[in-house]
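Re-run requested by the PI after the first attempt was lost when the workstation crashed. Everything re-entered from the original request form. Ligand of interest: PBG.
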Amino acid sequence: MINRTRRLRSTDNIRRLVREHKLSVDDLIYPLFIEEGSNIETPIVSMPGIKRYSLDTLSKELDEVVALNIPAVLLFGIPSKKDEQGSETWNDQGIMQQAVRFIKKNHPGLYLITDVCFCEYTSHGHCGIIHQQDVDNDTTLVNLAKQVVSHAKAGVDMVAPSGMMDGMIATIRTALDQHGFTNLPIMSYAVKYASAFYGPFRDAADSTPVFGDRRTYQMDPSNRDEGLREATFDDQEGADILMVKPALSYLDIISDLKRNFDRPVACYNVSGEYAMIKAAAEKGWIDEERVMMESLLSMKRAGADIIITYFAKEVAKCLTK
Ligand code: PBG
């Protein structure tokens, strides 16, 4: 007797009926780079289709995101001045805080998430306070608390700390609760690897470290069990959503988190993953739309509930075709 698995593949209708995983616009978060200044609409060369906007040029892009029914955006701020500590991150008049107030007022239909980190704001490009050529964990936590409270006061809907400091979720949860923001959720970049796939982003956000690298705080790509450990601590400290980053080379980690935690799992389809597809498509070597949809679907299949992706607008268009 032959086991005939092909029976359920014979027509499109039966394939639709037995399909296990689907991409939906409801899964998507679109990242946005907001630069301090005016009249800025600078294309990012290594990320075709993605631009840095100032607040006065942003609305057209946001209207499009809303029209495509994408539920949320993730904001990155690019300040006009940097310093050793990244003190602009907790300035109530800083670019992120201005952006939050602007978007909440003019585009109230969008769910607004801020990336919480220091690397775009520090003169050295690292994700915290430097002490003896390394990021000092616990003094960085003090500033992290100031930063999230400032974002919360500006009116953000969710914060997403990406700095990989130990204890960051507990610190942030406590600070938010103490200031009355008990209902503000935290999406933790819980399992974030020291990845070469962030290359294009660092150009986009001006956040390349001027010395060393991020390997003393971001995870070693060789490690899998350690991902569970990182996620366990963030789960215990009160993260509402656990994120894996990057996505495509870390599908095993997405699957681990989905199976081991009773929290929504997000993944970040990062700049290098985007750039590779764009570049190969530009050369005519791959079918861009099909490769895009297939790679995002693999993230869903691995267990991601939420996908942060620069492809969000293109995926949304594709899904309504
Ligand atoms: C850190 C941060 C990074 C990304 C998102 N948040 C870069 C880094 O750790 O160097 C990368 C995103 C991407 O590559 O698309 N604030």
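Saved to the shared folder this time. The mean pLDDT is 97.
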